[in-house]
Design brief:
The protein has 15 helices and 16 strands. Among the domains are: about 35 residues, no CATH class; about 170 residues, Thiolase/Chalcone synthase (Peroxisomal Thiolase, Chain A, domain 1). The longest helix is centred in the middle third of the chain and has 21 residues. It has about 425 residues and is an alpha+beta fold. It starts with 13 loop residues before the first strand and ends with a strand.
């Protein structure tokens, strides 16, 4: 592994003031009650209400989003205007697939570290239930021909060329979750990792059950206070992640059939992340902004890393992104108090844990002399993860950083690592610490 520099090491300190998120709402086969901008607006509004500065005091707004709707182009700007940040507020949207929300935080952190910004609203949002249905190329060509026909005869000829097969939609969500280079959907890449590390179906299902159990306990114990209720146009409110299956069990999961490699695969709907709508918003600030506005501090962003790898094994991205951070900071696994590795699939997290402690993998794939000590699973995703909470792709990166900082605060511990795999063969990671 080539030596890499910490992009934040030589700049000003970057602090996380506060954050909030919407409940993560499971898609139920039809468009959900909220567009992506609605979720980001409501999460952001609740966040801004509890701080003393006006919305136009931000230097910029940065949001991650993968599939914004046709009325949400540059969704960061749409949300900024809805939040009252003013017409002079710069805003931009970033897209790094599953890590788009973390990318937004990284962009904000680097601008603060460099002195370009002092106060930034950043996060991510996604309404996967509103992913578009598209016309096929053949249908678009037929419509174009009909539109260009100028005479009655030409229009009749164009109409005669119509074929019912043209009406078959292109499902945007399926296309978005399929890698065009490896020609594999994300579930198929998870099956590859299952085979490579000899992960058994029982291990995957047990991990999924534990994710639901941990989320259930977190809800009962009030450990998700970053969630703000959201209200739909009918006045109905949503105040909790609704993908939780508190009655999940090994017996129930064992009855599910494989989805991505029938009939021999091991990845099922029950041990995979759910299709979900949600948003997470954070306030990042320099020391000067904190002093100026007398702001609280939740924590500090210390380091970040992006990595690339084989798209067919994209689930191992967290290993490739976390390793350089550990190496340049001289850390062992025991130096990290809590970990958040986004649960795209149960087997994907299990594969990361296996690769992390595999000497051959670390030598051949990462160029390290030896493997890392195992990650303590009692300190990993302690309040559940994407299998139970859901994985709205634009928002998850911001969610795990926010919840990790909340975990450090709750447990009075110091240091945490958040990481995600990224469709297309990448990984992202962020090192944070709790601040007094």
């Amino acid at each position: 592994m080539a030596a890499q520099l910490n992009p934040l090491a030589n700049g000003r300190p970057v602090y996380v003031v506060d954050g909030s998120r919407s409940p993560f709402l499971r898609a139920r086969g039809k468009p959900g009650p909220f567009h992506a901008s609605d979720l980001a607006y409501q999460a952001g509004r609740a966040l801004l209400y509890r701080h003393p500065f006006a919305p136009d005091n931000f230097d910029q707004v940065i949001l991650g989003c993968v599939m914004s709707g046709p009325n949400e182009m540059n969704i960061a700007r749409v949300v900024a205007l809805r939040l009252g940040c003013g017409e002079r507020m710069p805003a931009f949207t970033v897209q790094r697939n599953c890590a788009s929300g973390m990318q937004a935080l990284d962009c904000a952190a680097q601008d603060i570290a460099s002195g370009r910004s002092d106060l930034v609203l950043a996060g991510g949002t996604e309404s996967m239930s509103h992913a578009p249905l598209l016309f096929s190329t053949a249908m678009v060509a037929w419509l174009a021909g009909l539109n260009s026909a100028r005479t009655a005869g030409a229009r009749l000829k164009a109409l005669a060329g119509f074929r019912p097969a043209y009406l078959k939609p292109v499902i945007g969500l399926i296309k978005g979750l399929t890698d065009p280079i490896a020609c594999l959907n994300m579930g198929q890449t998870a099956e590859i990792l299952t085979h490579r590390f000899a992960i058994q179906r029982e291990q995957m299902d047990a991990y999924a059950v534990r994710s639901h159990q941990r989320l259930d306990q977190a809800q009962k114990n009030g450990y998700l206070d970053e969630i703000e209720p959201v209200y739909d146009h009918g006045g109905k409110y949503y105040d909790a992640d609704d993908g939780l299956r508190a009655d999940s069990s090994m017996e129930k999961l064992a009855r599910l059939k494989p989805v991505f490699d029938r009939p021999f695969g091991k990845v099922t709907a029950g041990n995979s992340a759910q299709i979900t709508d949600g948003a997470a918003m954070l306030i990042l600030a320099s020391e000067e902004a904190i002093e100026k506005h007398k702001l609280p501090v939740l924590g500090r962003i210390l380091d970040s890393q992006w990595a690339g790898l084989d798209p067919a094994q994209m689930g191992l991205g967290p290993v490739h992104a976390m390793a350089p951070i550990m190496q340049r900071n001289g850390y062992s696994s025991d130096d990290i108090d809590y970990w958040e590795i986004n649960e795209a699939f149960a087997t994907q997290v299990l594969a990361c844990l296996a690769a992390w402690r595999d000497g051959e993998y670390c030598q051949q794939e990462l160029g390290l002399d030896s493997a890392f000590n195992p990650i303590d699973e009692e300190r990993l995703n302690i309040d559940g993860g994407g299998v139970a909470i859901g994985h709205p792709v634009g928002a998850s990166g911001a969610r795990i950083v926010l919840h990790l900082l909340k975990t450090l605060q709750r447990t009075n511990t110091r240091r945490g690592m958040a990481s995600l795999c990224i469709g297309g063969g990448q990984g992202g990671a962020m090192l944070v610490e709790r601040s007094e």
